Amino acid sequence: MYRKLIFLSLALCLAGGVQAVQLDTVMTYSQAMHKEIPAIVVKPDSYTADKSYPVVYMLHGFGGSYSKDWASPAWDVARYADTYDMIFVAPDGADSWYFDSPVDSTYRYETYIVRELVSYVDSHYATRACREGRAITGLSMGGHGALYLAFRNQDVFGACGSMSGGVDIRPFPENWHMAKTLGAYAEHPDNWERNTVINLTHLLTPGRLAITFDCGTDDFFYEVNCRLHRKLEYLNIPHDFTSRPGAHTAEYWRNSIKYHLVFFDTYFRQGEK
Asked: Are 106 and 33 in contact (CB under 8 A)?
């Protein structure tokens, strides 16, 4: 199923100096899409096959990539992997919005991430291979993707997050190539209704999924995030929602990821008891 694995040994300059990083760039083969897809896997520096580690899947935004959004030293993911003793996995999602497209069979990114990539990671790394050992988060398009995949696959992920996510895509029918994967809104409105995060809350059982999301008050996705928060409140679905000054920027997300990792660390530690 998977054709090749490329290991890279890197040294990244962190705030405290130069630190060796256990970062693998892997090429995974998707049977669902009949192509190879790259991802990075960041391990804590103390990684050993004799121990099992929780995994956080990180999804990039529209116009980003698996390496551009997460592998940059500015994100400090290597230090976070060491601090929290976690594995981070950042796959390339192209501009897919992480759907299994109902109109284009070459876009099956839900199947790829939830079934193929998770299976690959669990079979090649020392992971806690259960929902209690997995979380997923992302920024912008990836924030939508993380909640979308977690809400629909609660047997796979136990915790999820979104940073400035497009949690209701319906107000943006002409943006970000979404019509390519869902069809034009005017012609296929049901595809949009069925595949927007805010319409998937009926899948949630209170307390089943640990949920955190946030958005900057100057972000064009701010109002849809507030609406999702209010809907979850109405349905009595426990969740963390934070709004703070900020826009749709890398500066905001580099700050936001810190809070997500604290949230996931708390979740993983509870699962160990």
From this structure: yes
Question: Considering only CA atoms, which of 150, 193, 138 is closest in space to residue 171?
Answer: 193
pLDDT at 55: 98
Residue 20 class from Cβ within 10 Å (0-12 exposed, 13-18 middle, 19+ buried)? exposed
- Residue 273: per-residue pLDDT: 64
In degrees and rounded to multiples of 5, residue 48 shows phi and psi of -145, 145
How far apart CA 22 and CA 81 sit, in angstroms, is 10
E strands, 98-140, are 134-138
- Give the residue from 117, 79, 56 showing the smallest Cα distance to 266: 56
Q: What is the pLDDT of residue 13?
A: 36
Burial of 53 (0-12, 13-18, 19+ CB in 10 A): buried
Q: What are phi and psi of 222, to 5 degrees?
A: -60, -45
Dihedral sign, CA of 165, 171, 173, 179? positive
pLDDT of amino acid 3: 38
Angle at 250 between CA 264 and CA 184, to 5 degrees: 90
From 216, 209, 219, select the one nearest 239 (Cα to Cα). 209
| Residue in 197, 83, 86 with CA at minimum distance from that of residue 148 | 197
Q: What is the pTM of this model?
A: 0.91
Tokens of 5: 């694995």
Any idea of the CA torsion for 122, 14, 68, 141, to the nearest 10 degrees?
Answer: 70
Mean pLDDT by 10 residues, the chain (273 residues): 38 41 90 96 94 97 86 84 96 95 95 98 98 98 98 98 97 92 95 97 97 98 98 98 97 96 97 71
* DSSP-assigned letters across all residues of 150-199: HHH-TTT-SEEEEES-----TT-TTSTTHHHHH--TTT-HHHHHHT-GGG
